[in-house]
């Protein structure tokens, strides 16, 4: 299933405060997930296997490494947990990085919110405005991201331009 997201990730030391702000807007709480994302070596974009209690998916995505809200083209394959899939990916592609995080997940309509605590990196807030059917459009998705960035008081210096995998790799070098 391919779809367009406009999304941003921001580092924050006010994760609980941001979550309280969101709760004032009656979001749907999906739950708290412990997720291990294993990133693999690929020729273009990023490929990760997400193993969690709530979310299990093989995800390929392409997006620019720039701060602020940006377009992300996502291919998502939901699967049942299966060790063989990970073993195949490791043997054929090799592991690039592993990201271990605790994530609290919410939705308001088509907008998904992640309140993340990432091992070795800190606390982050992600907002993904998702257009699964191609009916919302890039402009409205961008406006939704801007609205929530303003709600959370995200400053220009808070935005992360790269993925968690890139941050993990930078720390290990």
DSSP E strands, number:
8
CATH architecture: Beta Barrel
CATH topology: Hypothetical Protein Pfu-838710-001
Instruction: Give Rg in angstroms.
Output: 16 Å
Task: Give an overview in words.
The chain is α+β, with helices and mostly antiparallel strands and 173 residues long. It contains four helices and eight strands; from the N terminus they run E-H-E-E-E-E-H-E-E-E-H-H. It has a single domain, classed as Hypothetical Protein Pfu-838710-001. Helix content is 25%, strand content 45%. Strands 1-5-4-3-2-6-7-8 form an eight-stranded antiparallel β-barrel, surrounded by four helices. The model has no long low-confidence stretch (mean pLDDT 92).
Q: Strands, helices and their partners?
A:
Layout: E1 2-11, H1 15-23, E2 28-40, E3 46-51, E4 56-63, E5 70-78, H2 83-93, E6 95-108, E7 111-118, E8 122-131, H3 138-152, H4 164-172
Brief summary:
The protein has 173 residues and is of the alpha+beta class. The protein contains 4 helices and 8 strands; from the N terminus they run βαββββαβββαα. 25% of the residues lie in helices and 45% in strands.
Keywords:
single chain, 173 residues, alpha+beta, Hypothetical Protein Pfu-838710-001, 8 strands, 45% strand, globular
């Amino acid at each position: 299933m391919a779809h367009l997201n406009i999304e941003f990730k921001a580092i924050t030391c006010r994760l609980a405060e941001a979550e309280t702000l969101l709760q004032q807007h009656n979001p749907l709480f999906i739950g708290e997930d412990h997720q291990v994302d294993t990133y693999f070596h690929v020729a273009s974009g990023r490929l990760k296997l997400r193993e969690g209690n709530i979310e299990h998916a093989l995800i390929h995505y392409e997006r620019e490494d720039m701060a602020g809200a940006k377009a992300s083209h996502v291919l998502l394959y939901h699967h049942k947990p299966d060790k063989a899939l990970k073993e195949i990916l490791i043997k054929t592609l090799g592991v690039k990085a592993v990201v271990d995080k605790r994530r609290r997940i919410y939705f308001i309509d088509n907008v998904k919110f992640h309140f993340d605590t990432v091992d070795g990196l800190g606390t982050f807030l992600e907002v993904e405005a998702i257009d699964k059917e191609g009916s919302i459009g890039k402009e409205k998705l961008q406006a939704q991201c801007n609205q929530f960035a303003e709600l959370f008081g995200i400053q220009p210096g808070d935005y992360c331009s790269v993925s968690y995998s890139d941050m993990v790799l930078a720390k290990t070098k």
